[in-house]
Amino acid sequence: MSDLAMIEIFQDIREIYDFTAPCGELLPYVDFFSETSAEKCDSYFDQGHASVTMFESWTPTFYINLSGGYLIDVGGKRSSINDDQDILILRNGTVKRHNRPEDRIFTVKFYPGGLEAVLGFNQISMANQVITLDHILPASLLGSIRAAASFEDRVRITETYLLGARKGRATDHYTRLVREAIGEYTAAGMQLNTSEVAERLFITSKSINRYFNRVIGVAPKTYFSVLRARTALTAMVSDRSNFKPWEYGYYDPAHFYKDVFKFTGRKISEVF
């Protein structure tokens, strides 16, 4: 692993950001709000880091630019983000953001399907794209977020807008079922296959496949594999001596190692 890059999960990329959870009404749809911390970034660059690599998650994410431009690799292509450009990406594959010491980014990360539930924009057409955010949000709102005096003020402004957009919007049947399916899979310790999750929701395997492809843009088997690899690898990094792959639905360590390589492109032996 290069000492010039921070790699999600293997290293704590959260250490350069301030985080907060959304208000209760947005909890089913928004994972978190975050903002680059000037103080934490100084330490980050002092350690020689220059980029952050993030793995597949299928989570629509806003990057609102509070300072200068930067480079980001999405879908195998490098994009140059201008000083006044805000973007939306899906994170359906590996993403690498090339940081600068003066970078300041305000981030809103949605759960899969969350963007559609709140704002009505389906995520499946966003794969491997860098979308200019003023195609999604009013320019006046983005200006207010950038001009706000603090992280807390930016969160408040964004939450107010999202709550207003969500109000009166009927819960989509597909989105609700996908959220419930992910909940069932997680609650069962990631031990269930797609058919077993479908049975718990009283739907067919054909239906659950249709729902996931309609809401997230990928089959449930593929999404569950990503979620399991991400969750299990995070647990292993956190407490390697007590980690047991079978607690996350893996047959044995070899099965887990194979999934980690598929998910990250890295062998466990190369990073530990």
TrEMBL record:
UniProt-recorded Gene Ontology molecular function terms: DNA-binding transcription factor activity; sequence-specific DNA binding
Keywords in alphabetical order: DNA-binding
Keyword Transmembrane helix appears in the UniProt entry: no
InterPro entries: HTH_AraC
PROSITE patterns with a match to the protein in the record: HTH_ARAC_FAMILY_2
Domain annotation HTH araC/xylS-type: ranges: 172-272
Stated name of the protein: AraC-like DNA-binding protein
